[in-house]
# Entry
Amino acid sequence: MDYFLELFVGGLTRGSIYALIALGYTMVYGIIELINFAHGEIYMIGAFTALIVASALSLLGMSGWSLLILAGVIAIIYSAAYGFTLEKIAYKPLRKAQRLSPLISAIGMSIFLQNYVLLAQTSDFLSFPALIKEFSFMENITIMRSSELVIFITTAIATTLLTLFIKFTRMGKAMRAVAQDKTMAMLLGVNVNRVISVTFIIGSALAAVGGVLISSHIGQINFYIGFIAGIKAFTAAVLGGIGSIPGAVLGGLVLGWTESFATGYVSSDYEDVFAFGLLVFILIFRPSGILGKTSSEKV
Amino acid sequence: MKRSLIFLMAIAFMLFTGSAFAADTIKLGVAGAHSGDLASYGLPTLNAAKLVVGDVNAKGGVLGKKVEILPADDVCKPEVAANVASKLVSDGANVVLGHICSGATKAALNTYKEAKIVVISPSATNVDLTKSGDYPNFFRTISPDDAQAKLEVDFALNKLKVKKVAVIHDKGDYGKGLAEFAKADFEKRGITPVLFEGITPGAVDYSAIVQKIKNSGADAVIYGGYHPEAAKIVSAMKKKKMKTFFISDDGVKDDTFIKVAGQFAEGVYATGPIDTSKNPMAIAAIEQHKKVYGSDPGAFYLNAYAATICLLQAIDKAGSTNIDAVSKALRTNWFETPLGKISFDERGDAKGIGFSMYKVEKGKYVEVGK
# Structure
């Protein structure tokens, strides 16, 4: 039973990180129907920023929770700025172009950001400090580690805050309006440019949170970590229904659990086979994803 | 129309004279990972080649010609290596030092074979490269993986006295090849590994496989692969307070592993080329690196230094860069190198070298057994 629970917790951890990144993909797609392939790199940049800040601050003698929170906040701000700039440079000029152009621009930005970090920092794997301290009450619990608990709780809080934001604030309402019908929202006086920028900022912030958390958990980062994480998170977003926020979270968790249990009970060799096989299976029966809305004809 | 024709002819003439000049040097292609996450494996080889070639050229070169290095970066990826090989061939490489990673080397060898170029690697350990007989133009100054695997198995059973083992690999040519040899060796001794599985490099987290290892009750894990994944798995294992031994290969016996895994690297075992640092040529080569580059040399430096020496001396003894003459010279002569006195057998493996087991103690790799 312990084994099952451990795999469950492992899948939950992984799934939470996928969910945090997937939210960025799904929100951007919902608003401007673009798959932001450079999103995985924002996650990576968040992790690198946190490492740089944490290293600098720990030299000044900081440690513990304040170090994690400060490094996290600065990473969030920095990544949000990257997301904002990314949209302005690479996607906004192509809003009127045919669908393929922003997509290629996204892939180009992804490669650019990877190599920028590679050159600005290093190609080496860098050790990431364990910023999440071990809780004393967790000492005797073997199925879950302190960092896994923190990841889960943070994801739950972030997702809840996002849902409340979308549902109850004016900006949230504006985002829903733009996602429904951009032209109409614009005609009704919604500042579409600002809504799009806010979407990118929130998505990037969430990705940065994911980056900081998982790097503290795993202990090392590298310029290339955004690549696989990005693909998995994108898969999770599609699995749950691209454009749907609860879908992104559900997709992330389902993907994480599938991978974890596939490794634990079948074989690690087939982990990705199961994950992507599940995606194909779900899409055959529900082409818009688990919680996706089938787009209706606008009369 | 006439002007552009003359222009084209002028360019063609210049290209022609360009290559005519080139024939006056011996071109040594140095191929490997010079950037990317595995660059720590490939850059020391480039440094070694530069130092040896510098010395050789200062003494007049080989057969009266200067040696010219053509560096080529394959980031240890097979697809890139194939392209790199084509480029080196078209750039006129006479001989090649490389590649670094087994998968990349395998992808490139056919191109070199067809171009009749001798290739010598300081680090590609996949057994098939020599044992299959498919690549008569290939030599190496490092023992093949079956020797590594045997050492790992012997050590695990005889020194660490483990009863249950898990064998994990990274699905690549190098890691999986090693893992399969280890598995076969265990089975020959009557022990079936409780786990034999592959992980995907670059994944977000490896807690599932670590849980599986813990659940299997294995006393030791034999891991075939490179240091990034090894560091992640070892960290996860230590954080879960597992007492399982972690035994790995020369892809992990790298100081970068200790740097990244930090305190969790303590107690990890890894095989690597026998420590020849007491050899006078080795001491001189390491000093030279420190003087010229201001740092200690990295992985496979001495192997690459030896390989370059053997290659250039073989060309000298053969009197040309012809593949048959050089191959014969490599096989029939013994060369003094930082690895000791070595030669090569009919398959291309080096004679006179081997592997040792190392353990991470107090943040450094220490030799613990042969």
In short: The mean pLDDT of chain A is 87. The two ends of chain A are 54 Å apart (CA to CA). Chain A is about 75% helix and 0% strand.
